[in-house]
Design a protein that fits this description.
single chain, alpha/beta, eight-stranded mixed sheet, 10 strands, about 25% strand
Length: about 190
Amino acid sequence: MTQDISRRRALAGLATLPVLAAPSLLRAQGLGALDRPETGATRNISSFTTRNWNDHFETLGLGAIVCDVDSRALTYWGPDGNFRVYPTSVPKTEDLTRRGYSEIVRKKVGPTWTPTASMREADPDLPQSVEPGPDNPLGTHAMYLDWPAYLIHGTHDTRKIGRPSSSGCFGLYNEQVAQLFPLVAIGTQVRVI
């Protein structure tokens, strides 16, 4: 009974947070069952690092995103200063990682994936493109940076989240990219660190 009350208090406290709690925090509170997306797959997440938008941008403007390769997390601040933290996949190697400032230039629900020339060179059997659906590596939503071929997108392969598994993009669980997508405006500033 006491454990149930503690669990409910912890859940009530987490519900008031403006960010998504890290699974390690949930497990520390004895809430391990909550660290699974609706699909039931377990997450592979490293620790989050707290970020402040003003350490990276002069103003919030339309909003700001920091993609942190080391902590494998994306932090989004809305124009009002409220923020959310999401676990992400990150580039497989440093060669595939582009760091610096960018911005969101386009958004697409149901994106089509087209392999880059370097992807096709590494694997000539890749299709010319993959239409929206469960085989599409971009998941259900995509937000394109002003750097060609770099995106923030969903993924159907939940094993990739929290791991170095992308060719340069930052992937989120489909459920979470769907939450973030309507909040992010075209012109939102992005920094990859």
